[in-house]
Amino acid sequence: MTPDNPLYRFHFCPLCGSKQFLEHGKTARKCQDCGFIYYTNPKGATVAVIVNEFNELLVATRAAEPAIGTFDLVGGFIDLYETAEQAMCREIMEEAGLKVAESQLQFLFTQANQYPYSGITVHTIDCFFRIEIKGRPQLMAMDDVSSLQWIPLKEIDTEKFGLHSVRTGLERILRCC
Fold first, then answer.
1. HSE, side-chain direction, 13 A CA sphere, residue 162
2. Which of 12, 21, 50, 78 is the most exposed place for a label (fewest CB within 10 A)?
3. Domains of the chain with bracketed CATH
4. Residue-level pLDDT, tens digit, the chain, 177 residues
5. pTM score, two decimals?
6. Rounded distance between C-alpha atoms, residue 45 and residue 50, angstroms
7. Is the separation of the CB atoms in 68 and 163 below 8 Å?
8. What distance in Å separates the CA atoms of residue 101 and residue 107, rounded to the nearest whole number?
């Protein structure tokens, strides 16, 4: 098991507490005492590609690690009992104060990602959604966003985006535009 697998750091069975919580293939650990098998699966996350009628992209600046101070797109983890669409709408409201409806979301693609968090690598599947809006609505940077700005798509420098998944996702999107 490699150090980038979160199970590398877990040594006790979460069900019975046994220390006999051993590697079981590349993505799981199995408790030799109670039989519990814990699989490492990617966590769902969302990324908002919000474009206005002036062909500008809504760009956030990260207020927290990882990659504090770099450019990012609005988005975040999908919570329990949420769909990716519900999570996307919630994250846009939480980080930008912008209310969007699920009907405004256009699914683009998914991308595998590794997100460093609290000393472990969280493997994610990032769901990219495009949202088209009118004008330049009043926005408020909140949560883990320090500022928001509109940048013309033709002026986007992907190297200023600190998270690999967002940077490569944007490169993919910009190649198509």
1. 15
2. 12
3. 6-39 (no CATH), 43-176 (3.90.79.10)
4. 677 777 888 899 999 999 999 999 988 999 999 999 999 899 999 999 999 999 999 999 999 999 999 999 999 999 999 999 999 999 999 999 999 999 999 999 999 999 888 888 889 999 999 999 999 999 999 999 999 999 999 999 999 999 999 999 999 999 986
5. 0.91
6. 16
7. no
8. 13
